[in-house]
Amino acid sequence: MKKSPFKIQENVQRLSEVCLKNSKIDNVHYSEYDVKKGLRDLDGRGVLAGLTNISMIQSQKMIDGKLTACEGVLQYRGIDIKELVAGFQKGQYFGFEEITYLLLFGELPTKVQLKEFRQLLADKRTLPKNYVRDVIMKSPSKDIMNQLSRSVLTLASYDPNVSDLSIENVLNQSLLLISVFPLLAVYSYQAYAHSKLRKSLYIHNPDPKLSTAENILRLLRPDKKFTEIEAQILDLALVLHMEHGGGNNSTFTNHVVTSSGTDTYATVAASLSSLKGSKHGGANIKVTEMMRDIKENVEDICDEQQLSEYLAKILRKEAFDKKGLIYGMGHAVYSISDPRADLFRTFVGKLADDKGLHDEFEFYAKIERLAPKVIASERNIYKGVSANVDFYSGFVYHMLGLPDELYTPIFAIARIVGWSAHRIEELINMNKIIRPAYESVLGDRNYVEIEER
Ligand SMILES: CC(=O)SCCNC(=O)CCNC(=O)[C@H](O)C(C)(C)COP(=O)(O)OP(=O)(O)OC[C@H]1O[C@@H](n2cnc3c(N)ncnc32)[C@H](O)[C@@H]1OP(=O)(O)O
Ligand SMILES: O=C([O-])CC(=O)C(=O)O
């Protein structure tokens, strides 16, 4: 029988030990050369790598001449995210399209501009002929993030201007990708559910009159039906995930890759690959899995002592995925609070009550309260830990009946807007390849001829 190339052979196992031995760098060198691990200062602040007009994240304030931790603030194009959300909720319309306009063009649209822009996105929400049959239906997989990358890279081969880096062309490509991401993600899920879960296959067309959030639900549901409140909550989730500065891992990837002069499709595929990581956008599905695991393994989930002990086991790599992380907790910038988690929490509570899932909400709230204390007792925390945007997002998607496989792709459907705005900002302003330094700490070695090794 033919051997699977994915099986780890014994010699690969042995060679991996050689990798481990020869690739290890003594920790002392990092302080000796003042290397900013993770491009972070010793106090955890990111190394300044660029300037942006797109968003602002604040987690510290100057009080009496001293930088002091404060409640997290997030502004899109200078406007507080809380005000933006209150604005479209008061106006009773969907926010994703309006905020896409704001993030890409730097100003809020008038009613006429918004109407035209919605139409532009609807016109672009279409895939090349036979694309679903020839690309999406081929080798379906549970990993919809990889399927998204593949679909984006294949779209490049249909674009006659793939490598044109003019702002007009890059904007056009970005708008196309923003429009079709819901189709690529949901159709990829449908293909997977049909071929691997033996479900019926539904490939509904989007409705040009509907918003992005409404279309996602329409494409997903066999009967294309959804309620107003379901679409509003999904829309809010999209808005909260759209943008988070130039330094988050997937957007920084976007800057790095853009700076090499590559095309929009390759850049977006790179950002998708970053986002799926479980310390970044992939955390939302990990939170759901972790919560299930806690319920299965803690005898009495109302007992806070038992919960804290289990959380400590997770941190000690003795439980759950043995990675030592409590997902949905902590952030590279925020300390006291992530404003997106705060916004989410208020709506999640109401939705949970409506869906009869109040106990589940209480369970989340309890973990949210206990985890920071357990993390602080097991790790060196200098700036505080709180729930991040992804702590509640999986629970929300679960209440909306979205399949687990689409949790991180929903993040991508939103974040492609931020990536696009940053790619355009990089192209307009930088024109310099990103190329930091790595100091070699090995020293010289003599070449030894093969007979003498
Ligand atoms: C959309 C987003 O990307 S939001 C983030 C989503 N990711 C998660 O929810 C995964 C869980 N959280 C984490 O892994 C981290 O909090 C990160 C990756 C988000 C940020 O990590 P850092 O920037 O290193 O955070 P910070 O500097 O505050 O961490 C201090 C220490 O606490 C640890 N820590 C922070 N959060 C957690 C956590 N949730 N679980 C376990 N340990 C944690 C860090 O690993 C670090 O330990 P070390 O000193 O041994 O290196
Ligand atoms: O800013 C970060 O490092 C991660 C984050 O919250 C995001 O990308 O939304």
Helix content: 40-55%
Query: What is the highest CATH level, the class of the largest domain?
Result: Mainly Alpha
List the uncertain runs. none
As a whole number of angstroms, the C-alpha radius of gyration is: 23 Å
Strand content: under 5%
Order of helices and strands: HHEEEHHHHHHHHHHHHHHHH
User: Which ions and ligands are bound to the chains?
Assistant: acetyl coenzyme *A, oxaloacetate ion
Give the tally of β-strands: 3
The CATH architecture of the largest domain is Orthogonal Bundle
| CATH homology superfamily name of the largest domain | Citrate Synthase, domain 1
Family: Belongs to the citrate synthase family.
Keywords: Transferase
GO biological process, one term: tricarboxylic acid cycle
Pathway: Carbohydrate metabolism; tricarboxylic acid cycle
Short structural summary:
With 453 residues, the chain is mainly alpha-helical.
Element layout with pairings:
Elements: H1 10-23, H2 27-32, E1 55-63, E2 66-76, E3 79-80, H3 81-91, H4 96-105, H5 111-124, H6 131-136, H7 144-156, H8 167-196, H9 212-220, H10 228-241, H11 249-259, H12 264-275, H13 283-297, H14 304-315, H15 339-354, H16 358-378, H17 390-399, H18 407-429
Antiparallel strand pairs: 1-2, 2-3
Helix pairs in contact: 4-18, 5-8, 7-8, 7-12, 8-9, 8-18, 9-10, 10-18, 11-12, 11-18, 12-18, 13-17, 14-16, 15-16, 15-17
The structure holds acetyl coenzyme *A and oxaloacetate ion.
How does this structure look, described?
The protein is mainly alpha-helical and about 450 residues long. It has two domains: about 75-275 and about 405-430, Citrate Synthase, domain 1 (Orthogonal Bundle), CATH 1.10.580.10; about 285-400, Cytochrome P450-Terp, domain 2 (Cytochrome p450-Terp, domain 2, Orthogonal Bundle). The chain has helices at about 10-25, 25-30, 80-90, 95-105, 110-125, 130-135, 145-155, 165-195, 210-220, 230-240, 250-260, 265-275, 285-295, 305-315, 340-355, 360-380, 390-400, 405-430, and strands at about 55-65, 65-75, 80. The chain is globular and about 70 Å long. The mean pLDDT is about 95. The site of oxaloacetate ion has 8 residues, from loops.
